[in-house]
Amino acid sequence: MRDRAEYARKGIARGRSVVVMQYADGILFVAPNPSRALHKISEIYDRIGFAAVGRYNEFESLRLAGIRYADINGYTYNRNDVTGRGLANLYAQQLGMIFTDSIKSLEVEIVVAEVGESPDEDQIFRLTFDGSVFDEQGMAVIGGQSDAVAGRLKERFKVGLPLAQALDAALAALTEPGGERPPVAQLEVAVLDRTREHRKFLRLAGPRLERLLAAPEPPAAPPAPEEPPAAPEAPAGEEKPPAPETGPPTAPEGDIDDGSEA
Amino acid sequence: MNNLFTNTGSSSFTAFLGAHAPDLLPSRPESLAAPVGDQIPHATTIVALTCAGGVVMAGDRRATSGNMISQRDIEKIFRADDYSCLGIAGTASTGIEMARLYRVELEHYEKLEGRSLSTEGKANRLAAMIRGNLPMAMQGLVVVPLFAAYDPGRDAGRIFGYDVGGGPYEQREYHTIGSGSIFAKGSLKKLYRADASPEDAVLISLQALYDAADDDSATGGPDVTRRIWPVVTVITADGFRRLSDEEVEGYVNTLLQGRMSDPDGPTAPLR
Fold it and tell me: Which chain B residues have a beta carbon less than 8 Å from that of A61?
């Protein structure tokens, strides 16, 4: 059981991180992704988005199942009756079942995010390969060096950031100290925007994304007198830019309850 | 619920529903003891016409059961996705259910495949759904939709008609369905202008509906006292837009003012 968990953790930590965070009008998803066709971020339903890291074929089948679940429930009842919580429970069951029953656990970590009418109704669930569900507040980071990225994101995260600044914070968090930001063409960015009608999910790409990336500099300049966060080469307490072998940092904090000891 | 995770091999929501929960499909295989056509509400007239860079669809608000008006403010035009909509005529309940399923069908494909269906693909899917309803149509539960879409590939609006057996039949310029369709079509024939602006096309569609309501008892005209206006939608490159009641009221007032002095509406030039 422990081997299985270790195996999954290593697989998940290999890739790049994905950031999911709240901003003023909804929830922002940012993933460095060189492919334009193989998405890590996706729409599940009107108000629900999905982000995943790990093995593509595994999280893709989870994504498809989630869409089937949402569409069939929305069609059976009403569109408002499809909730992020219900979807997270479905995923948790499936992940937990595979983790305990199968020879190999899924090497995935996923986020299910639901945008509400107001920021307090936004929900971000993080699910790990063993089926644990975490109800995250404001932001979640999955995959790669997720602890380091989450640390950098926490420094910059504020409630109610405008979109451009939230995107800037996410990119700063995804960039190792002293490293270069991924080019626009290798970014997958999407939002669940509560101000949109019908379907809230929107991919941001091309010129629209470039404009957003160009935007934050002027507003970011005045409210940044405390210089440490912006520093390109002054990582206050960051220890691990190129140290992936020290330990896979992803997935459930603490020991996994594998039932092996009473 | 676990078979949600099994692949059904297709991006079609209807196919998935048929495998996973066939009882949720709108078709009802058992035949009725006696035709009920006259006892359940029927939706009436829908008109659609192309305009510069898009398409306009409008529908009246009346539903009838036999000689009774069963609803004054029914909505018979449904948004299918960002670039298409459908209007229904015939049995209201079956039509509404079909429109709901059709919307999920388009969305389901789009989310699974990461791309929208082509305009022809959308029209064909709707044909298959109508064909599925054929046994019920023979029992009197006829539903015939009208499908309108903005085709990004052509940068133009397109209109597809159907019959009870399916279709689709692509229509050029304009098309009407429902009990008042004969009168609406006659009106459109004289008022239609190629490359009319979307605003002009909205007015044309309202004139056609007014003419249908004038001569067909099952089609409702604008209800001035209750302020119930026809549903008007415009689809262009900017996507689907349903005009607000205030906007439609403006157009209707223009129309009514003209009809005050000219009850039969605008006349087409003779030569």
Answer: 5, 7
